[in-house]
Design goal:
452 residues, alpha/beta, Rossmann fold, 2 domains, three-stranded parallel beta sheet, 18 helices, 10 strands
Length: 452
């Protein structure tokens, strides 16, 4: 028997071909009794495969299915919950699990249990310093024993602009030291960008000890306070004339050697502004060593900041005498700019949405209104990208075992709606202190102009 061929078959010339339906039917009858009978699962699989390969138009629905799934995940489309109430059909939206801020309701349920546990459980604060980890020998990843040999001739001047808040600026400084060492460049004391959020006009020397920074790096990287005379003359006494290289975020050390170094050698000076997050985390050990050295050895606060900090720590220890001078310090990140940038929603309703829209526009000028930019608060919360509220931080500390007798110091900027959001944290930890409660107005006055 020969298989079917479109060039000829055993059918009489005048006979028209049988219809597919009849053909399939005959094949079924002919196949009866041949081999084992197909199961239901096998039939379904065969049916699906035949649909995909014989009806290829169905594949056009695949992108639609994908888009629908993404919309469901992002919170744009939710399954409606239908219920009967007084013989009336009530249709309401159902939010995906974890996409709505419900911490106040959780706190309301847990508060009676917290009150019952207060002062009756073993305070973690008394045991945390007795951890087995302390018995291990900690060794620094860097060494202060650096050779006193002179640095090789510089390839040029490296200028960066540290943007963002204080923490981002610190990271940018450490990255700048690492890149300057990698390129064998002379580093100009980092310039601080006037941040649109903090509106802080501080210079490097207002926050960090400039002399100590230069001295600590003397055998690692050459650092200068001002532009050298030959550089000023070459660029007409205008730093803006120095080429500003556009470097992508998280660039590798190889990129700097291949792209930035030739420009540095050619022009004698290069500038990168902004410089935040412009060096990758994964870098060679020698580069990482410089980064660590800058962070842990070369950077320290200015004398005025250190003096006030010492006083505040002394007062905090004294106020924690009931626990042997031990206390918990928390860096609370719930300032207005953090809440606005996260694009998360809390429990402030329309007023909160309006305030956040204004804050985003004021600080980032249309960044969140660009074409194609979609804000999905629910998806952000599900993905864990929302800043913790003071309430959530308090519940976390209580869950860790710190009771209401624990002294807590809160390091933070201006908390968004502080009266509302700080109230439950103070309720959980009555022994709560902030810089305004530890230091006098006169002591804080010199730093009021410094937003960060």
């Amino acid at each position: 028997m020969h298989g079917y061929s479109r060039l000829g078959n055993s059918r009489p010339a005048g006979s028209p071909p049988s219809s597919p339906r009849c053909r399939h039917g005959r094949n079924k009858n002919l196949g009866a009794g041949r081999g084992p009978k197909q199961s239901i699962v096998e039939k379904v699989v065969v049916l699906l495969i035949s649909v995909v390969f014989k009806r290829r138009g169905v594949l056009l629905f695949a992108p639609l299915l994908y888009i629908s799934g993404m919309l469901l995940y992002m919170g744009s489309v939710n399954f409606d919950v239908v219920s009967l109430k007084n013989a009336v059909v009530v249709v309401s939206k159902r939010s995906p699990p974890g996409s709505v801020y419900r911490s106040p309701q959780v706190f309301h349920k847990l508060w009676p249990h917290m009150q019952a546990d207060s002062n009756h459980t073993h305070n973690l604060l008394m045991a945390v310093w007795n951890s087995k980890v302390r018995r291990q020998v900690w060794k620094p990843c860097i060494s202060n024993d650096t050779p006193e040999e002179g640095l090789p001739k510089s390839n040029g001047l490296f200028i960066i602009e540290a943007n963002g808040g204080l923490n981002q600026q610190r990271l940018s400084i450490c990255d700048a030291v690492a890149v300057a060492g990698l390129l064998n460049a002379t580093l100009l004391i980092p310039i601080f960008h006037l941040n649109s959020v903090w509106k802080d006009s501080s210079h490097f020397g207002n926050i960090f000890d400039e002399d100590y920074f230069i001295h600590a790096l003397r055998n690692q990287v050459n650092v200068v306070r001002e532009l050298p005379g030959d550089i000023l003359e070459r660029f007409d006494n205008n730093i803006s004339n120095i080429v500003n290289l556009r470097v992508k975020g998280w660039s590798s050390s190889a990129y700097y050697l291949q792209k930035v170094l030739p420009k540095l050698e050619q022009m004698g000076a290069v500038r990168i502004a902004p410089f935040s997050n412009r060096l990758a985390y994964a870098v060679p050990s020698k580069v990482q060593r410089l980064r660590c050295f800058a962070n842990f050895e070369a950077l320290r606060f200015s004398s005025s900041i250190r003096m006030l900090a010492d006083k505040m720590v002394e007062r905090m220890v004294k106020s924690s005498s009931h626990s042997g001078g031990k206390y918990v310090s928390v860096h609370l990140r719930f300032e207005e700019d953090m809440v606005a940038f996260s694009c998360c929603e809390y429990d402030g309703g329309e007023e909160e949405k309006r305030e956040m829209d204004i804050a985003r526009e004021r600080s980032w000028r249309g960044k969140f209104r660009r074409r194609g930019r979609v804000i999905r608060p629910g998806a952000n919360r599900v993905d864990g990208k929302c800043p913790l509220t003071p309430l959530e931080v308090g519940m976390m500390l209580r869950g860790m075992g710190f009771d209401n007798a624990t002294s807590v110091y809160i390091a933070a900027g201006n908390i968004y709606k502080a009266e509302k959001y700080m109230s439950p944290l103070k309720q959980m930890f009555p022994r709560l202190e902030m810089k305004d409660t530890l230091a006098t107005a006169e002591e804080l006055a010199p730093f009021k102009v410094s937003g960060s």
